User: Fold this.
Amino acid sequence: MSLFIPKTVSAFCAAAIIIFAQALPAHAQSLLRDTEIEETLNDYTDPILRAADLNPSNVDLYLVNDPSLNAFVTRGQNIFLHSGIILQANTPNQLKGVIAHEAGHIAGGHIVRSDYGNRSAYGATLIAAGIGLAAILAGEASAGALILGGSQQFGAIEALAYSRVNESAADQYAAQYMERTQQSGQGLIDFFDKFRAQEVLSQARRFPYFRGHPLSSDRIDALREKVAESDHTYKKDSEDHQHRLNMAKAKLRGFLEGPQVVFSKYPPSDTSKPARYARSVAHYKAADLRNAIREIDSLIEDEPNNPYFYELKAQILYESGQREKAIEPATRALDLKPDAPLLKLALAQSLLETGKTEQVQESIDLLKSGLLTEGQNSLMWYTLSRAYGDLGQDALAKYATAEQAYAIGDIQRARSFAQRAQEDLPRNGPQWRRASDIIVISDTELAKSRSKRSRRKPLTFQTTQR
Assistant:
């Protein structure tokens, strides 16, 4: 199965759209992993980050499985993009503009400053009034003031102004970064213009992006003036960047939307590569193996050195029960993209299913190689535990299970399996020492958790018996 869905572990997971449940803010449900889309986004993003004097290797970009329009940053230099914002972007330049804006928040230190601003504006009582605070930060100054009431209204207005100042500053930063990379800043203006009606909608009806990024005509006008000064205002995206965005959108639609919806957006009369890509996925999801293979084979014929077409073919074959046949295209995909951890995972899972000792060992080698790059990939650890188990290497299987549990934050289970693994692992070997680390860290975290619970004891009331 191509998806890793919350609370389940799938048997197969090609790199074509993997869904990971991870610790995210409350409004986000899962992350999407896809080597092709990640590569496209990184190629768009890295020049912008360098223009912002940020090290691309220190900034993590995440794709959230959510059709709503949103993008945001968190502490630790993390940028989150909803799948919906990619699907709504008509051009790479629009998407790049949004990314540049978020980079501006990081470079400008707005995350830390907004935390400080909130504390100074509200104090403890305002923070406790969660509903009013949320309304203010989202841009509803009057609503927030009514909820909070009295003299606290001034703190609410101050916080709103602070948020709008940050948004305007991030716009200006974005324009600078696009100029430095010799790209047009027009995309962010087009993006704002596209959704300008959000400015007059009630807070509840706005897209999440415009609840967190209050939009105003003044902001757009100021950005327009800045972009007009650039020598690259009317510069268009390259054909390659536009094509890659179209392919990313087609793949996302194929995996995340129903087959009939996909067929209506990409009818058979459309013979473009994005259309065939989307239809191949839709046919596969509709259990139509013949047409799924026909569409993907036509793409392979056009681009015999595209690893992602082979990757998708391997997934389709595997999911359709033709697991031996899936190995060849999965191998070809990895040959063409040898450093891609998710492609290593895909081939490893195909090899593992054969049950043959030599191929199971090859699966282990691939997974260990992939984990050198993605040490917190829980699905890789789970698959590795299965592979060790198939070879009767129970101590290593328990160790890999401990790592898998630790990666998803299941501290209690991680400690249990690490302790069980240690009993049979060679003392002071690398796995034994890592198991010790997991036990020590888990004990510390569990102790903190118990301490917090003890400080939250419920109130008790003493009654007098008569």
Residues 101 and 171 are 6 Å apart (CA to CA). Strands lie at 18-20, 31-33, 60-64, 71-74, 78-82. The two ends are 67 Å apart (CA to CA).
